[in-house]
């Protein structure tokens, strides 16, 4: 009787997990099949397999002027921005975790306050302009170098590391930076892996800073992939609407182009995430709960 109950429970678990897996995978599959379907088929509905197979959406996307340069900028901002965020936020968290730091609680509350209070976009725009960051690659990476949310997660994790390790290193003559590099960074790998995922996704998907701060001829070679695809999609929508008003069916619909763009931009993150997954759950739990 007990074996039968266990078997029923296993079947229910398999069904539930299969359903959850389908719910997670199907949106990606839906994007994929629609990106290879014609405009006419998409209007009728594509749900299981591509209909009226075509690669016109991908051909039009890869013919975008400046696409190779934008891909390079997107990868550069993701790698450099993520690395800068990781080291700046983790070092700041390490300092705030030091109980001997003067005014430590005041500084920590100041960082937390920035999560809830900001001056608005206009002062931010003026600050960026006055710092000379307009039409400058650094505008992608410097404003996100220190983030309060990441500091909270890393600080909480560092506080769970036995203080005897740090004290022992200091007694052996290790300074602040050496303790950070030799002790903190290796032991904080799980939470740092979580920060890498968060920061990389944020950098890869960002395009608003490009739209606001990259203007004129000086910024032609500094546009990132997301913004270039966004502008192409907007122009395609206008063209499709004009064609529809004239009674013509567009060769590539804005819907199929959007699906192709979404699929291409998702792939790099999908390649990074599985590698970081082994650290993700452990890191986010230990970084969020003290004790």
3D architecture notes:
- With 291 residues, the chain is mainly alpha-helical.
- The chain has a single domain, classed as MetI-like fold (Orthogonal Bundle).
- Helix content is 74%, strand content 0%.
- It has helices spanning 2-35, 39-44, 56-62, 67-97, 104-113, 121-130, 138-141, 148-159, 163-171, 176-187, 189-205, 208-213, 225-245, 254-288.
- Mean pLDDT is 85; it is low at 287-291.
Which helices and strands occur, and which strands form pairs?
Layout (H helix, E strand, L loop, with lengths): L1 H34 L3 H6 L11 H7 L4 H31 L6 H10 L7 H10 L7 H4 L6 H12 L3 H9 L4 H12 L1 H17 L2 H6 L11 H21 L8 H35 L3
Helix pairs in contact: 1-14, 3-14, 4-8, 4-11, 4-13, 8-14, 9-10, 11-14, 13-14
Report the CATH C-level class.
Mainly Alpha
Mean pLDDT: 85
- Output the CATH topology: MetI-like fold
The separation of the N and C termini measures 42 Å
N-to-C SSE string, H for helix and E for strand = HHHHHHHHHHHHHH
Question: What is the 3D shape?
Answer: flat
Strand content: under 5%
CATH 4th-level superfamily: MetI-like
Helix content range: over 70%
Number of strands: 0
Total domains, how many? 1
Low-confidence stretches: 287-291
Structural class: mainly alpha
How many helical elements?
Answer: 14
If you compute it from the alpha carbons, what radius of gyration comes out, rounded to the nearest whole angstrom? 24 Å
